């Protein structure tokens, strides 16, 4: 996947009010690296996320602040994953007066509430509670641009992982319905998304499509070998059927998503986990098959 990624500059001005600074931690799951964003036009700025503590990130941040003749008033953390928060220590060492905000904060940090506003010259951000990727996940609306900072709920490349599919879908729908968002999105990883609403709708559609595929596969028992009508399907059975045209190297990662779909459908009483130790699933109402 990394070979398909476009190159992004370590530091890039994306708009009059937004500068992206990469976290210096490119990789399979972090893409070009964690995006951190410096916001505002005056002598004090807001920062979204702090990377994972790589020396290159704090060096790039210090240089950018010197070039801008600015300091950081507040750092807003989208969620608890280490690649978004571990640079906070280096930030505070450089700028001890910076306030660190996060939903469900660490000791010494400040909480973020849904709808809370953060403002500096040239940038006004409104926090939007969007759990799913993690339970503490926050997105931010940049009113000055009608843009959305999506954190890791929506990425600039590929799809996102999540802790709970039902919660995640509800957050995507909440993000898609934001009246103040009419343009681009700034993701936690990857390049700028040119149309936030369109991409969020594509994310929702993709997840719904995978959910439908699981249901359709479970419904197709009668077309499968007879033993499956008794034993049901494991998550890996479903992956091998649904992803049969994909490389086998993707089966294990795909299984996590299928398990999330099954748990969501179980909560909705559409599927049932059969008794036994091998985690086999069937439709809730097997008599309809």
From TrEMBL:
GO molecular function, one term: hydrolase activity
Pfam families cross-referenced by the UniProt entry: Lactamase_B, WHD_BLACT
Names of required cofactors: Zn(2+)
Gene3D superfamilies per UniProt: Ribonuclease Z/Hydroxyacylglutathione hydrolase-like (3.60.15.10), Winged helix-like DNA-binding domain superfamily/Winged helix DNA-binding domain (1.10.10.10)
Location of the Metallo-beta-lactamase domain: 33-189
Native source organism of the sequence: Pseudomassariella vexata
Designated name of the protein: Metallo-beta-lactamase domain-containing protein
Family of the protein in this entry: Belongs to the metallo-beta-lactamase superfamily. Glyoxalase II family.
GO terms, biological process: secondary metabolite biosynthetic process
Cytoplasm among keywords: no
Keywords: Hydrolase, Metal-binding, Zinc
UniProt keyword Ribonucleoprotein, yes or no: no
InterPro entries, A to Z: LACTB2-like_MBL-fold (IPR047921), LACTB2_WH (IPR041516), Metallo-B-lactamas (IPR001279), RibonucZ/Hydroxyglut_hydro (IPR036866), Sec-metab_biosynth-thioest (IPR050662), WH-like_DNA-bd_sf (IPR036388)
């Amino acid at each position: 996947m990394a070979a398909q990624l476009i190159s992004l500059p370590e530091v890039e001005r994306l708009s009059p009010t937004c500068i992206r600074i990469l976290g210096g931690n490119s990789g399979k799951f972090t893409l070009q690296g964690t995006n951190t964003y410096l916001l505002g036009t005056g002598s004090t700025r807001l920062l979204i996320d702090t990377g994972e503590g790589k020396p290159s990130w704090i060096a790039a941040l210090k240089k950018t602040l010197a070039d801008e003749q600015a300091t950081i008033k507040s750092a807003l953390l989208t969620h608890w994953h280490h690649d978004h928060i571990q640079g906070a220590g280096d930030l505070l060492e450089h700028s001890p007066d910076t306030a660190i905000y996060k939903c469900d904060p660490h000791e010494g940090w400040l909480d973020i509430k849904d709808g809370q506003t953060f403002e500096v010259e040239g940038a006004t951000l409104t926090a939007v509670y969007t759990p799913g990727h993690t339970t503490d996940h926050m997105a931010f609306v940049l009113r000055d641009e009608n843009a959305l900072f999506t954190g890791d709920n929506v990425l600039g490349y590929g799809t996102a992982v999540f802790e709970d599919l039902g919660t995640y879908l509800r957050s995507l729908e909440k993000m898609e319905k934001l009246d103040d968002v009419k343009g681009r999105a700034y993701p936690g990883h990857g390049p700028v998304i040119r149309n936030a609403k369109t991409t969020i709708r594509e994310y929702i559609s993709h997840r719904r499509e995978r959910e439908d595929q699981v249901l359709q596969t479970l419904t197709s028992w009668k077309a499968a070998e007879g033993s499956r009508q008794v034993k049901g399907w494991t998550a890996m059975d479903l992956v091998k059927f649904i992803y049969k045209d994909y490389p086998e190297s993707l089966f294990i990662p795909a299984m996590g998503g299928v398990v999330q779909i099954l748990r969501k459908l179980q909560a909705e009483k559409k599927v049932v986990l059969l008794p036994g130790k091998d985690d086999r699933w069937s439709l809730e109402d097997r008599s309809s098959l």
